[in-house]
Amino acid sequence: MPQNRRPHGPTRRALIAGGAAAAVAAGAAACTATGASTVNSGPTIPPAEGKVQLTYWAWLKDLQKVCDVFNASQDRIQVDANWIPSGDSGGYAKILSAVAAGGGPDIAQVELRQIPEAALSGSLIDLSRYGAAEHEGLFDPSAWSQVKVQDQIWGIPQDTGPSAFFYNREVLEGELGQTPPATWDEFKELAGVGTEAGKKILSLDPSDGSVMNMWAMQKGANWYQPQDGGWIVSMADDASLQVAEYWDGMIAEGLVGTSFAPFSAPWMAACGSGDVFGYVGGSWADALIEGVPGGSGKWAVAPMPRWDDGYASGMLGGSSAAVMANSKHPAEALEFLIWMCTDPAGIDAMIENSGIGWSPAKDYIGAVREKPSEFSSGQNYNTEVIAAMAAGQNLDWVWSPVTQRANAALGDGMNAAVTGTKKLVDVLPEVQDKVVEIMRKIGLDVEVAR
Asked: Where is the signal peptide, in residue numbers (predicted)?
């Protein structure tokens, strides 16, 4: 099977060249932060002549310890980190309200999936105007593709979430006598073996629709395509509906759990007892899975199951560090971010102190991740598995400018699917209609793919 399958039709680069910048401009005109109307069109702000103090808002834990490593390396730029709630828990509201009022931080954490929406609000500085493109070669292509639109760069990738299959080796290989599934058909067969033994291969969060993005992008779908000054939306294409039909079957046949979310207390207990023995999701899950009671030495990691076509992996999660529209020091902010997200000292500090997901750097995954994991059965899974998952991404995937609302609608649809009131194959067209309506209401030119 090919590592990367390119879908037929225009590539992401061609589509973006056809008018993504115009799409961003149209959205920004509908909702613009104070001062942002000129921040990306007027003169650039030159580097300061003296010392600079930067503020950085994020929900990463102990981020100040990362900043302290940078601060100690020189005396020209100093960075102060302030913790805020995660984006969906009030962080974005806090950031955008501050920027709209003319204030806010120099730098803020913005999830990769939220970049188009934040850019459309006029809250971000286009870092290409400050030479960010010169550093592209330092970054993993799958990370860089998430922050770039045409020649515009709306943030610096901080971590990503290439997905894999995490599993309890003692249950899967020992009790059940099986091997990790290479394909989704094999995954379903294994789920059946587990169900017959009174176990579940995984448990879906009954209200989280974001996994549908991961499933679809791996299959080769591209739900949001910027083109000709607007967008083409295709959430109900053949690839997406095939994936939806697959999971409809898994749910209807009772092959996956749907009672509790991954990483919740009930999930941890079920994994500890072996009643749930797997998880498919972002690489950052490794740190959370280490919280499974009695799990040390029992777990392992395998590649994400594959389709006959499509890509090696989908992406779940990941963030950028974006420079906000009211920053007086974008050049210095960019200098710090390039250090933090590519320099080994920065990567190691983020892993050690903040528990970031997969490194955004092209050639450095982090010193600790180059070593075998005691928890995961002595496996060096980062180099053996996750690196290949990161290299096998769908680089054509583009997030929509209304991702938060789209995922909320997908979450409602997921809940309806697990309760048996709807099927995912019907949810996708319904959510597509909602997304198109929302995008048109904020002034975007939108077409539905035929």
From this structure: 1-22
